[in-house]
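If your schedule permits, I should be very grateful for your opinion on a structural question. I have a record of one protein: its chain in single-letter code and its fold written as discrete structure tokens. Kindly check, if you would, that the fold set down in the tokens agrees with what the sequence suggests. I remain grateful for any guidance, and I place the record below:

***
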Amino acid sequence: MTSSAPATRAYRRLSVEERRSQLLAAALRLFAHRPPDEISLDDVAEAAGVSRPLVYRYFPGGKQQLYESALRSAADELELCFTETPSGPPTERLSRVLDRYLVFVDGHDAGFSALLRGGSVAETSRTTAIVDEVRRVAAEQILVHLGADRPGPRLRMLVRTWIAAVEVASLIWLDEGKQPTAIELREWLVDHLIALLTASATTDEGTAEAVRGLVALERADGPVGRLARGVAPLVEGAARGL
């Protein structure tokens, strides 16, 4: 009777970049659903299936360095949400951007809340700068979709104000158990931007020019047309009462 040698598991040593990516992926999974204050290096080591000293070897700055690196990686992913080919109706492009953004929020719930609400011991000027960069990239992309090559201060302020509203709405959405649905929230956020643009266009020519360009590219049955038809009776009723 012969016996075969026990099967051995193939082992491949990871490169420095592969190991670092593995640790970052493990940290991202943890930070996505738990505030950074609640996560230790032991948690990251266990999630990655490595020892704590190995985590320190790749991130000698400890949890703070690991958190900032994970945040940078998440920020890169979030910035990609706002990248959209500038063709077709602007509100359709914006809807696709918001769909990707809300998928990100949904997948990073507790970590997203902790990130935007601040107050964490892991929060530093560097982490704040990373978050602000995402907001800047988002604003620039929205202005591209509005066709604003040289936006004035009013239009820039409007877009930044809307992005802040999107962040707050996302936090409330998480607090409310992700209700209404992501689709309903996205539609409301698109309507919100249209309403802001329309109101500002009455007193700012730069915004008015952007609105004219946006309307020219929209479909009659799209969000702009739907909102206009819904608002018209309200405005007419108010006008008759004046």
The chain has a mean pLDDT of 84. The chain has two domains: 14-68, 82-237.
